Fold this protein.
Amino acid sequence: MRPTRFGIALTAVAAVAALSCAGDGTGLDEFGNPLGQSPPELAPTLSSVQANIFSPICTQCHTGTVGPLGLVLDEGVARANLVGVASVEVPELMRVKAGEPDSSYIVWKIEGRAGIVGEQMPLALPPLSAEQVAAIRGWIANGALDD
Amino acid sequence: MTRHHFWLWGAGLAAFLLLLAPPGLAAGEPHLSVRTGLRCSQCHVNRTGGGARNDFGSMYAQTRLSTWRAPYQGRSLNNFLSIGGNLRVLATGTPNDSVRRSQVEVTEASLQLEARVVPDAVAFYLDQSVGPGGATTREAFALLESLPLDGYVKAGKFFLPYGFRLIDDAEFIRQRTGFNYRTPDIGLEVGIEPGPLSIFASVTNGTVGAGENNSAKQFTTSAALIFRHWRIGGSVSFNDGPGSRRDVAGGFAGVNLGRLSVLGELDWIFDTPDEGEFLDQFAAYIEGDFLVRPGFNLRLTYGFLDPNVDIGENARVRWRFGAEWFPVPFLQVNAFYTVLDDIPQATTDLDRLSLELHTFF
């Protein structure tokens, strides 16, 4: 049977797709980052949160010059973009309200609370672990310092 | 993924499109543009697409998109003012055990206003999101049209001219490049559309609509050749921000084979921080749309992401398939199933079923 153009096209798509499946994850953690690059111990400080959460996970999108909704979480600028800055999605809430994790929109977003706009963060990745959420909550509860 | 996969991808997509293209031929939502062979500016006030439909777009939506027709409703309040709007209500369910839940939410409520200050020459355009959450301005610009080479100048806040303007911001090529409905910027855009050629170029603050934070600017340009049955183009963007520089480059193409239309895009994303490691990402997208009957469309999409080219075996794949139906004018119903194929260590299954009701005018 003579192959049709449609059939050839479908075959080409299938071939390209088959060659480009998801990775097998060898040597990676659950967020796709290499194992063995151990960040400092998880603690309720900005440096720890940055090294353990913001840099390896959040900056997969919230990075560089085009962070979604203007939120960039790169090292050195994350705190300025969070603390005392009104959320774009729910403007009556601050992204981070120092001392008040339950009034901080970033906590709502990573916990997937009712009342958030859009989807739970991190988008299209596994939710943060309880320990990671606790570290962010602790950093905020301690005043969201530059520590 | 290694670098030779880039060439594999590029060659694969190019070969695929060449195979699809009939000899001697070339080819809202991008698939509608590909299917009809029309430019974005044919149906939208914004010359690069998205937002309010113009008179032609409104007429097309009422007479060609829907299964059943109704008396024509004009969008113009008078010969000076026109209005538009979109409301999207989304119900989603995650069928897996680890995060089993369902929800209904309003994902978009927006209103558009167009004032034709000088007919066919000067317009004021506003696209305001009124929900969910706080009201935000998606686009607000002055538009100067009827310039040589079918040219225009746009000044204000607008979506940057890059790639296919997919409605799905979560797709890798829109999420990772940062060119989506959540990232308008403020600046100036010029464009010309002589014959089959469309060229757009913008200079913006590079701050995603926030206040300027340095003296550098973001440069974004897109060029495409558009014919009745095929199109091909490319986009590039350079943004030198405080602490980091981002360069993005990509190519896109589409073909129309009657009931079947296919479009695809490849993007390379390079982030160069002043301190820290260089990050090189790659994203790809292929979409196939099959028009079963007027108003009823089947769709299959394939998204690919390598979130760090220098790390192996970390690629992610996103499949989406389903149907969209325009039963009557100004109403669209979508049902899609999304499958995210991640690395095995990813502990959460993010597959989801979604049903969306979209009303617009």
Observations:
- The CA atoms of residues 322 and 336 of chain B lie 4 Å apart.
- Chain B is about 10% helix and 50% strand.
